[in-house]
Amino acid sequence: MKSYRYEATGLARVANSLADRAVRATRWRATAMFALFIFALFLVIFCRVGALSGSRIAADRFTPAARSSEMIVRSAGVVAAVVLSSSVLSSSAAAQDAVQWRVEDGGNGHWYAAIRSENQIDYPSTLALVTQQGGQLFSGCGEEFDVVITLTNALSTNLWIAEGSSQWLGPWIGLQLESGVWAWTDGTDCVFDRWDISRWQPNAPGSGTESVAFLYTVGTGPAPIVHDVDTSRVTGSYIIEWSADCNNDGVVDYGQIRAGELVDANANNIPDCCETSTSCDPCSADIVEDGVVNAVDLAAVINAWGTAGGKLPRSDVDGSGLVDGADLATVLSSWGACP
Questions:
Q1: Long-range contacts of 301-310 (CB under 8 A, 24+ apart)
Q2: In a 3-state reduction of DSSP, which class is residue 130?
Q3: Which of 56, 62, 124, 229 could bond 67 through an S-S bridge, CB–CB 3.0 to 4.6 Å?
Q4: Domain limits of the chain?
């Protein structure tokens, strides 16, 4: 019995000695791995609690401490929901009257809105206003012009100003005279053919100061025809168009903002990612591209820490040229299945 005890004691001493040497030789690795393990365990528990907090669980199954934790998780969820709702509402409120000429309907995917101004507005002021809204004045010929006039209900008398007994002043469009040629402000290359030719529109270049255009009719009411006018002339509305695709994914940014696919916290209809020159990929934190942001992506960031990404360039999530805390924060905030 004594011999067995001494043998066991000796083995324990040897094991302790080996363990001590191993720990000393790899102290930083052990510490890092332990910290990572604890952090990952915390995330799993937190996510699990978050998932369970929405279900009905009997109150007597929770200790007071557990109930407090549940209340914190729920409170955080409520705050996040309020912030998200505020962001969505601020964007949709400004875009509630916008309509899309859908690609599946033979269109270009752009968004349009005929908007009544609070006050009568001249051409330069209108240009500034539409720029603030992340768009440009409507530009388009032929079928596009006809479709947009219909889609936006641009002939509604609510958008027009009755001037005198027979003149009607309608929305501004993005057509102006440049070096003797009528051209679209956004560079659209097409020849406009909806002038009021019955009243000799447009005027001959150089014959006056009428160098911009809005919908204008003389007769019984609004009509889809255009007159050239002076830039100081005022009317009561304009047609705005959103066509920008700043992240070059083939989809108009405005629609992605409305759908919640791109964040627009300042509600100017320009994706925040484009204004800050960061990635617009809604799942940029999915470094290994398996459709979910999880511990694998977290490990990729930690493994590439302090580099430009190494063998996994996507580890530099924000494209700053350095894998650091900002990339780690993005991974944690995007945790879960990709949208």
A1: 301/327, 301/328, 301/331, 302/36, 302/328
A2: helix
A3: 62
A4: 99-242, 281-337
